[in-house]
Amino acid sequence: HPLVVFSQSIMGLALLLVLGLPIGLALLRWLEPEQKFSSTILLAPMAGLLCLMLLIASSVLLFGGFTISACFFLILIAEMISIRFLLKTSFGVDIDDSFLKQKMTRISIALVIILSLLPIYLFKVPNGVDWIGFSSLTNLYSTTGSTQIPSPNIGYWTYPPAFPATAALLQVALNLPASDAVQLLGRISLMFLLLAVMGLAQRWNAGVETLIAMALGFGLFVKVHDSGYPTLVSQFIVILGLLILTSKKQNKIILGLLILFGGLIHPSGSLILAALVLSEIILNRYYKGVFRKEDKVVLGFFIIAVLFAFILSPEGVAVQSEYGWQGGSPLILF
Fold first, then answer.
1. Which of 26, 115, 157, 278 is the S-S candidate for 82 at Cβ 3.0 to 4.6 Å?
2. pLDDT tens string 193-248
3. Residues 6+ away with beta carbon under 8 Å from 185
4. Backbone phi, then psi, for 148, in 5-degree steps?
5. How far apart are CA 128 and CA 137, in angstroms?
């Protein structure tokens, strides 16, 4: 029933915001204390969901499987640290930001919310075929806590845990079918990504214009329509990376960690951000004639990561997977 679907989507959105928003706000305030209030507010949901997914994925790796208690344990620690940080930090910027009061801004935000979530009410299941695999993974996480394929089959799924494990949390918390949890998380992710792009561009007073430019391009929306949700979510680290690269204090250590942990979502975002960081280092070397100390650290990190990726292939077999995300020589090739 449409009312049931509506209530489930609102509860799912509320749950993700309650769990992730304080962490996202704290991260943004730490990375860029002098950022415009409007940019921070628009970027915060995406930053919070990114942190939430990485925490849930980390719990799967640390505790050897998915459990609700382990997820909430890590999230609770992160929230306590974030709230304590926010209470000690003054905003130091104009909260009365005129951008959020402009008519075009409000119309744009309303359209992003409506159009991102509308397919949940139009389609019983997502489009494309990728959602079938993600739903299977999500259901396995929520029922068995692992990606072990049930008997009589033998084997296990190999896929980055962040997205399906987060969908499993929604499935368990809201008592949803796995396919509904996958579609809901994917659509909310699209909404947060579009708002974040708007917030990032507003640093140069171009929030609405950039959102319109994005709407004229089909790539992102086709990927979502085809239910390639983890690829979409992996762009979160690209947005956060752009924020760091265009800030006064470019924290290269955080950039390196984003590239590393981005692999817990999908390798495409890590590859894009790595290319951006390397190009920034090369251009800095070209214009200034020297490598900064932090640039040397990042270059060393990339060399180690490439060597690690080269030897990291399941069971010693170089699997020709999309983006080469399973490691080995295919990853080096991509």
1. 26
2. 999 999 999 888 888 888 888 777 766 777 787 788 898 999 999 999 999 888 87
3. 12, 16, 163, 166, 167, 170, 229
4. -65, 130
5. 16
